[in-house]
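Researcher: Next sequence.
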Amino acid sequence: MESRAWFSLNKTILILWSLLFSTISQASAHFNCHPGMVEIPGGTPGSCYLLRPIEDGKFIFRKARKYCEKGCGYKTFLPTPRDFSELEAITDWAIGEGLPRYRGRPDDPAGYWLGYRRKQKAPLEQPGDVYTNAVKQIREDKSLFTEYARPGYIMPDIWRNGQPGDQTDKRDERCTAQKKPGNFYFIGADDYACARRQLHYVICESPLWSRLRG
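Model: Next structure:
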């Protein structure tokens, strides 16, 4: 009787170990980067990154976002660094992968899009519209910028000095980018028009939370 109970207990333990191993293996697969993507030393922990080939060119925000979501083969997003050190690590890695470096000339290349955006609009709709305090408050309100993939997550204060809301004309700059990569003076996010021929290169990020969610 005791030997039968002992055998049953061992069998149960083996089944539980098998289930645990299977769960760990599946979870481990989510921790791994997708083929072609890499982790960046100093980047957001758990995130994997991909630089769209520079020869593909620069894109407006919508097309950059679409490429990360559908065009690169995986469900990814524009990068959302959490502090200046992560932003700098992503920039340094991208330069090493071929992202054009800022050289101090007026015709220097653009930077790359970030995954933060202000959803609320603050336009000057008619020529000659006055730049009112109401418009100014919206454009300068850092708390209105959130992750476009997770609107409940407010953008950390990784702004460059004087940002956001430095434009007082019809440009309602609701998207964000790291411009002029490679120069310490420009480290930090700038707000940019999401369209209006504003072009930047594309980096895609696969955050750990996205891979775990499947």
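Model: Residues 32-213 form a domain with the Mannose-Binding Protein A; Chain A fold (CATH 3.10.100.10). Strands lie at 48-51, 112-118, 145-147, 175-178, 189-192, 203-206.
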